């Protein structure tokens, strides 16, 4: 599977008309390095059972917090400083990823095009 992904990515990159030779070279280097890391670390994608386990636990925990708000408040009161810093950094990372997705989707760093002003 990794070889197919690598050959697909290499063919897509090599077929692009505006791609320089350095870009092709470095993409091949990154592809080879990622292949070596994948094989040396014995990595594999998570199984369907792993996804079901994780999301079932998350759903049950979220449902418990939604149905018992007092226990949710007590849980928040027991959080320490290190927990707050950890969860705050997770929030900042999520906000950054969301913002990056918005920038990629709009293809602009700031704002949407105002189509109403043209009419």
UniProtKB/TrEMBL annotation:
<dbReference type="GO" id="GO:0031966">
    <property type="term" value="C:mitochondrial membrane"/>
</dbReference>
<keyword id="KW-0813">Transport</keyword>
<dbReference type="GO" id="GO:0015078">
    <property type="term" value="F:proton transmembrane transporter activity"/>
</dbReference>
<keyword id="KW-0496">Mitochondrion</keyword>
<keyword id="KW-0375">Hydrogen ion transport</keyword>
<keyword id="KW-0406">Ion transport</keyword>
<dbReference type="Pfam" id="PF04718">
    <property type="entry name" value="ATP-synt_G"/>
</dbReference>
<dbReference type="InterPro" id="IPR006808">
    <property type="entry name" value="ATP_synth_F0_gsu_mt"/>
</dbReference>
<keyword id="KW-0066">ATP synthesis</keyword>
<protein>
    <submittedName>
        <fullName>LAMI_0H13322g1_1</fullName>
    </submittedName>
</protein>
<dbReference type="GO" id="GO:0015986">
    <property type="term" value="P:proton motive force-driven ATP synthesis"/>
</dbReference>
<dbReference type="GO" id="GO:0045259">
    <property type="term" value="C:proton-transporting ATP synthase complex"/>
</dbReference>
<keyword id="KW-0138">CF(0)</keyword>
<comment type="similarity">
    <text>Belongs to the ATPase g subunit family.</text>
</comment>
<keyword id="KW-0472">Membrane</keyword>
